[in-house]
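Lay summary

Proteins are chains of building blocks that fold into shapes. Our project writes down both the chain and a compact code for its shape. Here are two examples, one after the other.
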Amino acid sequence: VTLSLFPGVISEIQSSNGLGSWFPILNLTIFNMFDCFGRIFAGSESFAAYIPRPNGRRILNSRTAKLLGNELNGFWVYIGIPCFARFLFFPLFIYSNELIRSDFLVFILDAVFAFSNGYIACLCFMLGPTMPINEAHKDAASLLLLLACDSGLVAGAVFGNVIHAK
């Protein structure tokens, strides 16, 4: 989802308040800042109390992670659903020049998009390797996560070019 919209579509959004050529630069800067904030927030122990996690923080501890049966329900609630909900950003960004008449609202939309990207990506990479029970499968899970991430980056870049061409 991210590379389909960022940076191609996001940098094409026009300013409605006269920021001109600075608007794409500010948009890209806001994206990078809030993506970083999302990653920091997901991994920070000091914010752990504010992040609803399935079974608390113990899921991040590989010694106690036994994500079988009912324990996987929290994974879909806190990671799966927000991940699929990010598809709602497609129409918002693609039609933002017609729908949104405020630069501030575009910046807010960009910040939420970026924060959710950093947060979800970081949680997936933290939780994914803890899911297999067998220690031998944890390395394979990490490699599969990396393969899925790289495949998503390529697919997003290709799809972004398709969207950008229209």
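And here is the second example, written the same way.
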Amino acid sequence: ELIIIIIMLFTPQLFGPSEALVGEIVKFRCELANHPKNEPVLMHLNRTKWMGDSSSLNGEAGTFTLVIKRQHEGNLVCKATLQNNTDSVEATFSNTHYLKVVGEFLYQYDVSLQFFEGATLNLSCQTTAGNYLTYKWLLNDRPIPRSPFHVMSDKHLLIYRTTSKDSGSYKCEASNEFNNTVHTNTSKEVVITVKDVVSNPDVSFVVLKWNSHNYSAEVTCNLTRGTLPITFSLYNREQLIGNVTSKERKATFKVPVVLGQHMGWLQCQADNGDRTAHSQWMALKNQLVGQVMMTYECDMGENYAVVHVRFFCKVAKGSHPSYKWFLNNTLLSEQQSFYRVDNQPPGESMLLLSVGRESAGTYHCEASDSFDNTTSISSMKLYMDKEGTADPRLSRLLAHVYDGWVSSLLLRFSAEPPSCPGGGGRLWMLGLEMKKNIIAYEGELVSVCVSVITSVIYCILKGDFCHPASCGFSLESTLNVHLPSLY
């Protein structure tokens, strides 16, 4: 007689924690409601991926001890079978039990430590353990703000069009929560250097005098930006003059020159590892200082009174002029309360004056070659009185008044200045009750009526003289002037 016994295993139940830390030792328990007598039961943790076995003979629960790893996270199940399993006994499975794994973090970076601006920086915060993580990026211990060029996505940091401002110490913070407590780990710092590409250099030169026959040009290559060190090279057309690696954004080269001769065309090149930048071509030619010109401008205040006068001094030719200013033939060497000297490139100097008693007098400038001040060229002289009103029609007579003295100056002429007989010129007004001030250029051929020693008034025009009655003016008082010889 054949007897068939069918043993049915109830659905097991799996018990254990729902959260665990990486490295933590935890236990899971699998129980059967109808454990068969004298039948060993084999329990497996998980349906497909083996994670542990436990045997039960007398109805005790199966236990599983795990050292938690990151891969343990997921849905766990308990599978129960008879140890001498036959086809007549089917395995049963518990309901799923989800385990959340929270862990420690280690970070790796895939990035070049140095690169040039304009490249894309890609930092990745790689974890070897842990999940449910949130990330934060720090630059020099400060959170990196989001911008169109700073993009943070999950564990990645992308910086587009990098500049030297993106250089610094980068760190990644990864955080997650376990049992209502936030756990945060910070990576080690990675120092990133974004190097500035060199700008196009500027090239200039000055002439140096070694002795009366030997001169050289000191050529300067100058940059506004570029990460150091920088290699500078100087070329005269195709010929390399020299190169030097500098820890500054400039370098100098010395080149022999002959005054007045064209010595070629110079170009400066600069390179710090990314690209070679080129300056404009510059002619190596030194022209000696020529004629000196002096002009002026006035600033008006209330009631149209002159408050400031600006004198300008410039050479008609000359590559490297140097200027000096004089008041009554005295060198203006230091800045005073009533004037300021401003040398303005290329090759011009300005003297700014505050109009007043102390600034009255005769001005001129002198120019010389900056490398040789033994010879200088002077401008014409320009007289300005204490009120600074310009009247360039007056003669060189007034430009030399400072060499004598004026005891009184109270002439008044008729409204329309007459012609001087025999001179063929016009007699200009010296002023209406002296309310107009005078700026007079030396050497202008303009006439004026004066009384020399006696009260006899002469009209001086281009060296010609006429009797005061012929001049046709009305005399209000006497002009007493002691004058040097002007002719």
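What can we say about the second shape? The first strand starts at residue 13 and ends at 15.
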